[in-house]
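tool=predict chain=A
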Amino acid sequence: MNTKTTRISQDQLAEQFACCDRISAYWQSRNLCPTAYVETYGCQQNEADSEKLRGYLIQCGYGIVGSAEGADVVIVNTCAIREHAEQRVFGNLGALTHTKRRHPGQKIFLCGCMAGEPTVIQRIRQSYPHVDGVFSTHHLWQFPQLLWQVLSQGKRQFFTEDEPGSIAEGIPQARDSKLKAWVSIMYGCNNFCTYCIVPYVRGRERSRRSEDILSECRRLIESGVKEITLLGQNVNSYGKDLDQGMDFADLLAAIAQIPGRFLVRFMTSHPRDASYKLFDTMAKYPNIAKQLHLPFQSGSSRVLKAMNRHYDRETYLDKVRYAKQVMPDLVLTSDVIVGFPGETEEDFQQTMSLIEQVRYDSLFTFLFSPRPGTPAAAMDDPTPKEEKNRRFDRLCALQNDISEQIHRGYVGRKMRCLVDGTDKDMLTARTEGGRLVRFAGSEDLIGTWQDLTITGASTWSLTGKL
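tool=predict ok
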């Protein structure tokens, strides 16, 4: 693995924009208006990457459409976190043979985390000849060059070398929303949890310069964006690779002080690096959302050590206690893995007791999925799958009950919410803590802050009225 960080120069980026111009001229010379479709799997970082790919495509002259059928370019932006996600991608990638048969000029590309796995690259080469190009996350900034080579040479292109992790400032970004925006503050991960493929496919941690992040946030706020979510595999380690004397709490405080009416969130936090300073900063500024996603993964210190998480049960609980102390209305969410290799019933009971003690607003729950190339994939795993499934169901039932109880506690409260869309004949809004609220109202309220009185609750959402 190449561990250096490369900062892409403006001259290098100018070469990509020159490729955009060539592609645009290519279509204009044929009197055609090409279209493109980008399908995204996985996390918010992938969503942010897809926005950059759409930005590039628009600069190349493509119109963005909502389906692969008939599109001149199809990009599948993939996730490698779990085996199920990979199998879905391969299934849908195979189905694209039919769209290409009906539209022979269609160019199909695979990118994202799966494109960083050698076994996937080899499988695409051998078994998916209709895929015209593959590029890893390190090569996203070179997409116009790859697309131009496919169009002009008529040959498959693979940009998947073990390149150093790069940071490219200035890639155009076609954002999905005018109200909310993703802002990546860093890329990659240094933690090497034994179950996780991310450091191998996204590279080592590398932080954007604070002045670039602040400049992007100012532009977004001035354009009317009401909510910014800062992204990173581990935002709490922001700045450790830079000589700028600014950690994540400092960056968060600087963003919170930008003039304007907006809310800032972030994800994801690693408990090892989540500091009391961060919690104090969140508590200090009204426009930092009192919402924290703090993955614990297991309530057993023994399992956490096997996971290489660098904290134990008590350390995690101490941080949660302090965060709730300084932010009494904190909405706390987390990730948990059931069935990690060697997890005993006693280990699982410790996870259940931690959930009961912390009382999360919601959880993202996962059955362990072995990822080839990670240490956990080679660990002895004697627990039958049927027992893992039973544990998973017990855990989900417990958390669903807690979520419903917490939501019922909202009934009767007045809450400031950002109205962000529609769901059938109802408007949708989000509380500061990210809880979904449905209510009746006029669509001209979308994009505004409104006080809603909560009138009803379920496990997953709230209902309210103006």
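Residues 385-408 form the longest helix (24 residues). The CA atoms of residues 325 and 387 lie 37 Å apart.
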